[in-house]
Design goal:
Structural class: mainly alpha
Number of strands: 2
Shape: globular
Radius of gyration: 22 Å
Oligomer: single chain
Order of helices and strands: HHHHHHHEEHHHHH
Helix content: 55-70%
CATH architecture of the largest domain: Orthogonal Bundle
CATH superfamily of the largest domain: Intergrase catalytic core
Largest sheet: 2 strands, antiparallel
CATH topology of the largest domain: hpI Integrase, Chain A
Strand content: under 5%
Number of helices: 12
Number of domains: 2
Distance between the termini: 68 Å
Amino acid sequence: MRLNKLTDQKNLLGEYLDIIENLKNYSQHTVVAYKTDINQFFEFMNNTETIDIEKFIQNLARNNYSKTTLNRKIASLTTFLNWCSREKGITVPETSNLAVLKTDKKLPNIMTSNYINTLLDNIPVSSTKEIRDRAIIEILYSSGLRVSELSNLKLTDIKNNQSIRVFGKGSKTRILPITKQAFKYYMLWLDKRQNISTIKSGNFLFLGVQGNKISDREVRRIVKLRLGTFPHSIRHTFATHLLDGGADLRVVQELLGHTDPSTTQIYTHVSKKQLKAKYKRTHPRG
């Protein structure tokens, strides 16, 4: 069977998305992105009667899609088509000749320790919602979690020895320490959570609207409201502050849950950049 418009595309895509979300533990954000990319390819394929991915990418490039977005679409389609071939026996176009587009490597935005500490200390904690928000942000900065990792935390994942069990990408589990401050606000939230727990809340730690499990989107909204930035900036800040404090790169890699050391390598560039700035500020002839 070939991948064409005669293929039952809807069922095929539905099965694939179910696998990456529930078995491979991809974040909701990634699942939605994959769904968008693959549906876009199906639409192009059905309208042009071709399954040439290179032409599909070229068409998007002509419509001014960024290189970063195009690279994500290449990755989405490559993994999907390889799954179709391997698991479903469908004849698909060759993907090995698809080259990743070179992009300018941007250094992540980093907050100084004084700045993030001031922001955290200024989050009010007079209401249940404020205590929840403070606990969320304290844990994000304490342990460098991804948004999806935080929203999927269960009540049983934080232990009394101040450690946290995290289910990361690829269903990989890692045990991380959390700070005294993060544990303090976690305990305060736990006390408040008992009053709003519902059947819908299940065993999830953080709850959103109407007592449901908090969504990734809601976590991003909270961080933007309280800190004026995005959760990934907190993750970048966490990693950089550890390296600035003398932590080994391998340790930071393990804490972040990075499989590839080169992914963590960018934080060394950030640290060097900050070191140079500090040097210029403090050296008499800097």
